[in-house]
Amino acid sequence: MEHPTSGPTSPSGASSSALGLLAGLPAGTRVSVRYALPAGDASGLPLTDALGELVGVDTGTDAAGAAGTVTVRTRRGDVRIGTAALRAARVVPPAPPRRRPRRD
After folding, report:
1. CB–CB of 8/17 below 8 Å?
2. In this structure, are residues 72 and 65 in contact, taking their beta carbons and an 8 Å threshold?
3. CA distance 23 to 68
4. pLDDT tens digits, residue range 63-96?
5. Cα R_g (the chain), whole angstroms
6. Ramachandran quadrant class, 87 (left: phi over 0; alpha: psi -120 to 50; beta: rest)
7. What is the separation, in whole angstroms, between the first and last Cα of the chain?
8. Phi/psi zone of residue 57: left (φ > 0), alpha (ψ -120 to 50 degrees), beta?
9. What is the per-residue pLDDT for 98?
10. Residues 57, 70: contact at Cβ < 8 Å?
C-alpha cells in the first residue's frame, strides 16, 4: 500500500516521487524528509525525519557506483541522505518566528 505523500517505492523501498519532488525544488525550500536508518543504528528505529532547508540534490552516481544524495540543513547541521534511503518528502511552511523569553 502506498502512503499518500510518498508515492510508489522501488524494490529497495526508496520513494521515486519523494526524489522527484526534491529534485524539482530550489535550494532553500523548507522540507521534511523521511528516510530509513541503517540496520545497526543505535536508536533501534527503522525511520527518522530531517526538517530544514534543502541544500541540494545529487541524483547521479559516483565512480564507485554509490547512489546520489539529498542534503538538508537542519538546526543541528547538514544531514546527507542517500537517495536509496528516501521514503517520503514534502514542502513545509516557514518556521514561526521565535518568541522572546518571558520576563518575570
Report:
1. yes
2. no
3. 11
4. 555 578 999 999 999 999 999 999 999 999 998 8
5. 15
6. alpha
7. 53
8. beta
9. 84
10. yes
Q: Which of helix, strand or coil describes residue 3? A: coil
pLDDT digits (tens, 9 = 90+) for 13-68: 566 789 999 999 999 999 999 999 988 877 888 999 999 999 999 887 655 555 78
8 A C-beta contact, residue 86 and residue 18: yes
Strand, helix or coil at 48? strand
Question: Is the whole model's pTM more than 0.85, yes or no?
Answer: no
Q: Give the Cα-Cα-Cα angle 60, 64, 66 (nearest 5 degrees).
A: 45
- Cell numbers linked to 63: 565512480
